[in-house]
Amino acid sequence: MKKRRFCIFLSALLLIAITFVPCVNAYQASSYGTNYYDGMDTRSIAQNARSELSSMGYSSSYYLNEDADDAYNRMASDQVFFFFGHGAPGRILFKESSGDPMEAITADNPSLLKISDYSYSSLHDIALAVYLSCNSANSDATNGNLLDESESKGVDSSVGFSNYITQGQAAWWSDKFWSYLDEQYTLNGAVEWALIDVRLQYGLLNPGGIDSYVIEGDEDIIIDPAMSGS
Fold first, then answer.
1. Which residue from 52, 201, 55, 38 is spatially nearest to 130, judged by alpha carbons?
2. pTM of the full predicted structure?
3. pLDDT of 153-202, one tens digit each?
4. Beta strands 213-217 and 104-106, pairing class
5. DSSP label at 129?
6. Please, what are the domains in the chain?
């Protein structure tokens, strides 16, 4: 009788352990939105992205008006990184576009937070990084190139834009993009179909710069169900 009770007790402990393992090992997704002084407000879009990523199985969080250094320090623990806000070649700008060293993440600016400071392959757990900002796919002599630097540190796939993008089209694209990924579209498929939706909403000749997207890395990656970079 005692032996049977002991076996039942061990089985119960095993079930508890199985229950808690997925929580400990949950894949992390971070979405960033900011309310800028110039009227640009991307907070609701970051929240929408967070919801879709949560639906995919990620331990998903959104951060509003976040400090750049907090986002930077969190990157190495992310499986998905999403930023929607002001940017320029080689950098994304948090809170304000003043260029304050604590408010920007760059690819390789020696005076600012820079992805190049991460050791080789230290971002290999990131399956997807999306830099939804103006000229985020372009290179700068001082700031470097966000997509190239991300790939060099181990990011599987990243998305940026080589032109100015308008807020309305970018917001519409983002909502559709994450929704398609949640339906298990490939990265390239989600980008393309979301662009089609933008054209249907705003006009074929008015994509608002979204058609300047650039994908670096694996275009066929599917991030649903939740996964880590390879």
1. 52
2. 0.88
3. 999 999 999 999 999 999 999 999 999 999 999 999 999 999 999 999 99
4. unpaired
5. E
6. 27-217 (3.40.50.1460)
